[in-house]
Write a structure and sequence with these properties.
By secondary structure, this protein is an alpha+beta fold. Helices cover 29% and strands 21% of the residues.
């Protein structure tokens, strides 16, 4: 008897959604479904039906069928084979739990006598109710169901304590021949067996004649999905957590576990259907070149507590052609521009020494950066255009690449990686492994981890991580484990979180990159960011309200490139539809603005306080104490002589004086401004003394430093030329461009550009000029290399 618990079936583990809907049942390696109930939680009709059909004298016999044993002895003495059958419930329990598999199937007198002996001992050690509970919890009911709870869930899709009389009778009749009476495969035989059980129940006084007839006439509805697997990628996440808790001793593998997860099955179904349909629509597009979009992943999170409401790891878990079993929601991939909000959040941190604001001006003009290994890096915007001075709001909202790299350079790679680690992003290694391309998604992060990081922005700057299990009970409803919730850590200043959310929900701020009223705009306040990798392997859209976050990845599991698909056209439509449907019928919930923010009118190019010359202003939000104190210097109002196109002086006749507004931009932006046809102060001579002119500035704009060029022998040598461009401040003229110690050319008017025919070797280039004070100026020296192909 002491070994009895070791013979119990290993219980299966039931995994449900947050509302109790069965998602999956993890079966033991040996056996099948099994959930152990206390005898009090087993319905009386099932006990009565079982006793009626299996052992009518159960409560009065000594645990053995004496008549049956004598019959077996008589047959044995006459040389016949000992037949099975006729065993009491106690004998069946003894046979199934205390005998080996080989001994169990013997048809000998010895086996029958040993069974009777074990049953007799069991009767002395256990009460009748305990023996009945063992039978009802361990017997095979077919369909991989062991025990009445597993049988009830398998055949009727509900717990045993909800069974009605017709269902009790059907289940009680199964153990005699589970394969024969299985209602899924032999419904007619199962019905006939049920009628026999009901007849025995009436005969033995458990039910009345009317109850029997009513039960026989009652139609039975069977479980349409007896072996479900919902949200399979999510299920394996749960299984890993359960395995860990069992190995740590938090849970016991001998307990019947019911794991209630955070998943909402209706949200899961919506996400799966939407994602799969959009992927199929990509395949139906009748273009000359296939978009080659075969897979996607999606997560839905409650940003306030990190609960995962849906997780779709692929378009089809069972489709091997797309590696559907691979969970793309948890697989690290390059994020493209979806990583940018974290960088800008660092720049806006008011505790930083040189804190930025949403109005801070960034020059979106071609810029070459030198990485830590000395390699030149020249990012380009998605539209391959430059946009001149842009605000942080426009740069982030429109996902401009050049300003993002400048922002990363400002806040530092190490600080950025540290922030990512604090937000639970474990896939990024030490800062030394990255360069400025990290701003454009050069690091690999999973959709789940990046979405969880975004949730901190939606949750007023508080990071909670993500959770997937709400609680775990045993089969009798006793609480074994509950998710206490991760402590909320304040990662972002709430004002920074609000500013980032305000920018990402500003449709006008993203108009440069996406145009007005794009797929990113909902009928309510929602912050959203897309991402597309430069090789078109991945595209992303992650967006949120204060109550809901949806993250979407679209691509191919095997890293095959997509064609003409971006975050806006690939992931965004899926995000838009899921968000819209989940929020349907709910009121708009704008992001709650925290205290400590002020709104100030600023000039649109510089982000500084307006002057009378500033032609365009707008109102911007600032963290208190970061408001601009300086006035704008980009816009300058000057008087010119239209006849000479120069600044007027005292000798200029009054009737030839005309007031105009010009721009005094940094020299790096001058080429961009001229292409836009904007008037520049530097293009007019004799600047006013009170004009904010730049003195002593001389910069070599191109070529980029440390760049290698190749001479192609298949082309005319004279056609292979390199443009050299110089930017000069006010009061500088007669610019000399030097190469390898000799003057290449002299330029006397803007734009200061020349062309040089390539020649093999390493070359050093710089510019020299004399300012209005007669001082010699020299630019930085850059080195380039030219090789033969």
């Amino acid at each position: 008897m002491a070994s009895l618990p070791d013979r119990y079936m290993t219980p299966s583990i039931r995994i449900t959604d947050r509302n109790g809907h069965l998602l999956y049942e993890i079966l033991p390696e040996v056996g099948g479904r099994n959930t152990v109930l206390s005898v009090e939680n087993i319905p009386q009709c099932l006990k009565d039906a079982t006793i009626a059909v299996e052992d009518k004298n159960f409560y009065t016999n000594p645990g053995i069928d004496i008549t049956g044993i004598l019959r077996a002895l008589w047959i044995n003495l006459r040389g016949g084979e000992t037949l099975a059958g006729g065993s009491t419930i106690t004998q069946q329990v003894a046979r199934n739990l205390l005998m080996s598999q080989d001994e169990r199937i013997e048809r000998t007198l010895r086996r029958k006598l040993r069974e009777a002996m074990l049953a007799s001992q069991m009767t002395q050690k256990l009460s009748k109710e305990e023996i009945l509970a063992l039978y009802l919890n361990q017997i095979n009911y077919g369909g991989m169901a062991y025990g009445v709870e597993a049988a009830s869930q398998t055949y009727f899709g509900k717990p045993a304590n909800e069974l009605l009389l017709p269902e009790c009778a059907l289940i009680a009749g199964l153990p005699q021949a589970p394969g024969v009476y299985n209602p899924f495969t032999n419904p007619d035989l199962a019905k006939q067996r049920q009628i026999i059980v009901l007849g025995l129940m009436e005969k033995q006084g458990y039910i009345s004649h009317d109850k029997r007839v009513e039960a026989e006439m009652t139609p039975i509805s069977y479980n349409p999905a007896p072996y479900p697997i919902e949200a399979p990628h999510f299920i394996w996440i749960i299984k890993d957590q359960i395995d860990k808790m069992i190995s740590e001793g938090t849970l016991s593998s001998h307990q019947s576990l019911i794991v209630r997860t955070t998943l909402d099955v209706d949200t899961q179904h919506l996400a799966e259907e939407t994602l799969k349909r959009h992927i199929e629509e990509f395949k139906k597009v009748n273009d000359a070149i296939s978009h080659n979009v075969n897979n996607a992943a999606l997560v839905v999170i409650d940003p306030q507590d990190g609960e995962i409401l849906a997780l779709v790891g692929s378009a089809d878990y069972f489709d091997e052609s797309i590696d559907g079993a691979l969970d793309m929601a948890t697989s690290p991939r390059q994020t493209g521009s979806a990583f940018k909000p974290l960088i800008y959040a660092l720049a806006l941190d008011p505790t930083r020494l040189n804190t930025w604001t949403p109005a801070t001006s960034i020059l979106d003009v071609s810029t070459t950066f030198i990485t830590h290994d000395g390699t030149p890096y020249t990012p380009i915007n998605y539209d391959s255009r430059e946009h001149g001075p842009v605000s942080v709001r426009e740069a982030l909202g429109s996902s401009l690449n050049i300003p993002a790299v400048k922002t990363l350079q400002e806040v530092g790679i190490e600080n950025t990686i540290n922030l990512a680690h604090r937000l639970g992003i474990t896939s990024l290694s030490d800062a030394g492994g990255y360069d400025l391309s990290l701003a454009l998604g050069g690091g690999q992060i999973s959709l789940l981890q990046l979405s969880t990081a975004y949730a901190a922005l939606a949750n007023k700057g508080y990071y909670t991580g993500n959770t997937s299990i709400l609680d775990i009970h045993d089969a009798d409803g006793n609480l074994l484990y509950t998710q206490a919730g991760n402590p909320a850590l304040q990662i972002f200043d709430p004002r920074v979180a609000w500013l980032i959310s305000d920018i990402l929900s500003d449709d006008s701020a993203r108009s440069i990159g996406f145009g007005p009223n794009s797929t990113l705009k909902l009928d309510r306040t929602a912050a959203v960011k897309t991402g597309t990798t430069t090789n078109f392997h991945d595209n992303w859209t992650i967006g949120y309200t204060p109550d809901l976050l949806v993250g979407v990845w679209v691509g191919n599991s095997g890293y095959e490139a997509m064609h003409n698909v971006t975050g806006l056209t690939g992931a965004a439509p899926i995000w838009h539809e899921v968000m819209r449907k989940l929020l349907q019928g709910q009121p708009d919930h704008p992001f709650e603005r925290p205290t400590g923010l002020t709104q100030v009118e600023v000039c649109n190019l510089s982000g500084l306080l307006p002057t009378t010359a500033c032609q365009h202003t707008y109102k911007e939000w600032f963290i208190a104490g970061t408001e601009p104190a300086q006035t704008d210097s980009y816009y300058q109002q000057v008087w010119i002589d239209p006849l000479t196109n120069s600044i007027t002086d005292d000798l200029t006749p009054i009737d030839r004086r005309k007031s105009i507004t010009v721009l005094d931009l940094p020299i790096e932006a001058e080429s961009w401004a001229r292409l836009q046809g904007l008037p520049l102060l530097i293009d007019y001579s004799q600047a006013l003394e009170n004009a904010s002119v730049r003195q002593n500035q001389l910069a070599l704009l191109s070529p980029p430093p440390n760049t290698t060029y190749r001479i192609d022998p298949n082309f005319e040598a004279s056609a292979q030329q390199l443009q050299i461009e110089v930017a000069a401040g006010q009061g500088i003229s007669q610019i000399e461009i030097w190469m390898d110690g000799s003057i290449l050319t002299t330029l006397s008017s803007s734009p200061y550009q020349t062309w040089w025919s390539l020649s093999a070797g390493e070359h050093r280039i710089w510019a020299q000029a004399v300012n209005s004070n007669g001082e010699m100026l020299k630019s930085d020296v850059i080195t380039i290399t030219v090789i033969n192909k």
